[in-house]
Each structure stands twice: as C-alpha cells, then as structure tokens.
Amino acid sequence: MGRPGTRAAQTEARKRALLDAATTLAAEGGYEAVQMRDVAARAGVALGTLYRHYSSKDQLLLAALAQQARTLRDRLDQRPPRGDTPAERVADVLRRASRALERQPNVIRATLTAMSSSDAGTTAAKADVHETLRSIIADVVDGEDVRDLDDIVRVLGAVWFAELTFWSGGYSDSTRMGDALARAAHVVLDGRH
User: Fold this and answer.
1) pLDDT digits (tens, 9 = 90+) for 81-106
2) For 158-181, what is each residue's pLDDT tens digit?
3) pTM value?
4) Distances (CA, A) of 87 to 23, 69, 152, 153
5) Which of 45, 130, 152, 172 keeps 20 to 30 A from 10, CA to CA?
6) Cβ-based neighbour number of residue 71 at 10 Å
C-alpha cells in the first residue's frame, strides 16, 4: 500500500497534465484544436481517465481558465496591486490580467467559446472562475468597506467578458481593453467616470 495522499497527489498531477495539454493545444490551434483524444494523448493518460475528470471540452477549457485565474491570484500575493483606493487597485489588477491574457490569444478565444457554452456540465467550472475572480477583487479591496461586492464582481466580470470578446474579434487592442476595464472599476467602485 502506498503512502497516504499518494493517490490524491497522482490525481492532481493527472489533472494538471490534462489542463496543460488542453491549454497547449488551444494555443496551437484554438478551440477546434482541443480534441479530447488529443488532450489525453498529449497528457499521457487514457481517454477514459480524461472523461472521468472532465465530461466535455468546454468543461476542460473552463477548468484551465479557472487554473489561470488562481495563478493570477497567486502572482498578486507575490506582487500586490498598486493604488491608494480600491478602484485604483482593481483597475491595476484588471490591466495586468488583460496584458497576461493577450499573450495567449488562441487560448483566450477558446475559453471564451467554452464560457459561452450552455452545457450544464460547465456550470461548476464557470462558478469556479467567478469565485476566483471574486476572491481576487475581495483581496484587492483589502478589507475596505465596499458595498455590494458580489454585484461589483458580477458587473466587472461581465465587462471583462465583453472586452475580451471585442479584443478577440479584433475590435480593440489590449490597451483599449485595459482602459475600458479600469474605467469600469472606477465607475462601479467610486462612481468616477
């Protein structure tokens, strides 16, 4: 019998490998390039193992997006956002996140497609992305009295989704996206236009 926790560690390692494989395939060819059989092969796991963890491509891509959001949260712990007010700090975070996302345009386009999925199996992954975004913003406002934090997160998430859609469709560049997100942060957090 193995050491306690070994099985859980192996499961987490397999899930990480699957998310990495999906992200790599998306980076190479976008949404269409992420085929479940190819993800399993790239990760070195059986196709059945992949389906045991993720029932669809959309669920897999959203889990990868949630992992990217957690990575952002970890980076913010290492290098906190700048700004004297909650709105300034949230604006800084959204600008930094936008710059990071623009480095992987095919991945973002793929995850946007997955985020638009009506597949009921994606609900938990979408909730995970939302909760991670909420925890990032809650950490950034740093205990200051901010009314209606859940509403603020929902509005900023919707604006971010829209801006990412504009950017991925070629309507705007990352600077314009970052500026729009910063304006939205100021509007919802301190009423400044």
Assistant:
1) 999 888 899 999 988 888 888 888 99
2) 898 898 888 888 888 777 888 898
3) 0.84
4) 31, 19, 11, 12
5) 130
6) 12
Planar angle of CA 144, 182, 98, nearest 5 degrees: 110
Nearest C-alpha neighbor of 87 from the set 186, 188, 159: 186
Closest by CA to 61, choosing from 25, 98, 101, is 25
How many CA atoms lie less than 13 Å away from 120 in the CB half-sphere? 0
The tokens describing 12, both together, are 């987490």
Cα–Cα distance measured from residue 161 to residue 157, given in angstroms and rounded to the nearest whole number = 6
Question: How far apart are alpha carbons 116 and 121 in whole angstroms?
Answer: 12
d(Cα 117, Cα 181) in Å, to the nearest integer? 24
